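Minutes, project check-in
Item: structure for the 157-residue chain
Input as provided by the requester:
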Amino acid sequence: MFDTIFGLPVHALVVHGVVVLLPLMAVVTLVWAWRRPARPATGWLVVAADLVVTAMTFVAKESGEALQRRLGGRAALEHGELADPLPLIAGALLLTAVLVQVHRTRGDGAGGRSAGLRTGLSVLVTAAAAVVVVWTVRVGHSGAEAVWGEIVSNTSQ
């Protein structure tokens, strides 16, 4: 299922979306969590986008494992190990977005306790977003190095 589509590795098609969209959604979710959106529906759009990117991350991981099996199971081992937790990390961002949105939907009132909870949830989003960006860069870099490192080092300008 995650092996090929139209004769091309699914991983090569999906991974670029993850490398671009996951950090982008981390930043969008971070900004949204700290700012009060004009419309309540905005939060559900952020949650939905985080869900889509989390699903893409899972597909990228599974398709990468299928590609690795196709190549004999020894290709890009470090990259594969680094990528293993990425869907869970994306899921953590999604979970923090859901918590913020549920808190907002239930009405966070004007009390100090509610403001403290809102701030605490925003701090959780910040932590999740930071881990998402750093881990995505690490995984993407190791994948690019696995594919292109030897080719570039063996060619001249």
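Outcome recorded: The chain has one domain: 4-153.
No further action items on this chain.
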